[in-house]
Amino acid sequence: MEDLKVMTKEVASDVLEGIIDANRDKLMDYAKLLGLANSRARLTGPADPKCIFDEHIVDCLAALPLIPSNIRIVDIGTGGGLPGLVWAVCRSDVFVDLLDSVRKKCLVLEEMVRNLNLANVVVHCSRAEEFASSNKDLYDLAAARAVSHLGVLLEYFSPLVRRGGSCIAFKGLKGFEELEELEGKEEKLGWSGLEIWSYEVAGKKLYLFTWKKVKDARISVPRRVGIPERRPWWR
Which residues does the record give as S-adenosyl-L-methionine binding sites (predicted)? Predict the structure, then answer.
C-alpha cells in the first residue's frame, strides 16, 4: 500500500483554485439549493451552504482537470448531484446523466437542475445494474463518490463505459485497502492503466482512482440487482 501511495500524482492546487474562483457564484447557488433540499430528502451531510461548498463541492472539483472536453458522463449514486452536477455547472461542454435509485432524491435533483437552468444534465431514477442493461457502452466516463467498494464500482462502471473511455472513483485512504483486495484483477472487467491522484480538502488527504476501459469484460455484466454487492467478482 505504501508503494501505491508513493506512485500517486497530485492534482495541481493552483489549477483547482482557478476553477473555484471562476465558478464560485454558480457553485454557491447550487450549494444553497442543496442545503434547502436536505430538509426534504437526505442528499448530503451538512445543510449549511458554506459547509457544503468547502467540504463537498471543492472535493468534486478536484477531478475536473482530469475530465476531457465534449464527453458524456454518468454519475452513479449521485445523491445530491455530487460530483456530476458540480461538473455540469462548471463545464457546459460535457453532458451528464445523474443516476440514483431513490425516487425522492431524483425528484429534488430534477428541481435543482431546473432552478440552475442546466441544459446538459438529465436525472435517471434506477439501480445501476438495471440502467446498464439498456445503456451499454454509452459513456465516455463513469464516476462515483462515496458509493461502494472499488471492486463493486468497477463492475457498475464496466458495461456503461465504451472502449477507450474511463472511470473515476473518489476515495479516502480505505481505497488503497480495497485496491489491494482486487489483486490486479481489474482487467477481467476491461480496466487497465490505473492512476491515483491525491488532493487535499479541509486539511484531509483524499484520492481519485482512475482506469481506462481497454476491452470488453471477460465476465458477464451487468449482473442482477444486488448481486455485485453480495457476490464480489474478485473473490
Answer: 77, 82, 128-129, 145
Query: pLDDT per residue over 38-69, tens digit each?
Result: 877 677 777 899 999 999 999 999 999 999 99
As a whole number of angstroms, the distance between CA 32 and CA 49 comes to: 5
DSSP 143: E
Strand 72-76 vs strand 9-10: parallel, antiparallel, or unpaired? Answer: unpaired
Annotated binding residue at 77?
A: yes
82 is in an annotated binding site: yes
Sequence letter at residue 135: N
118 annotated ligand binder? no
High-pLDDT (> 70) share of the chain, %:
97
- How many CB atoms within 10 Å of residue 92? 10
Collapsing DSSP to helix, strand or coil, 168 comes out as: strand
Q: What is the DSSP letter of 34?
A: H
In whole angstroms, give the CA distance from residue 235 to residue 231: 8
CA distance 106 to 88: 16
Is 128 a known ligand-binding residue? Answer: yes
The percent of residues in the chain predicted with pLDDT above 90, rounded, is 89
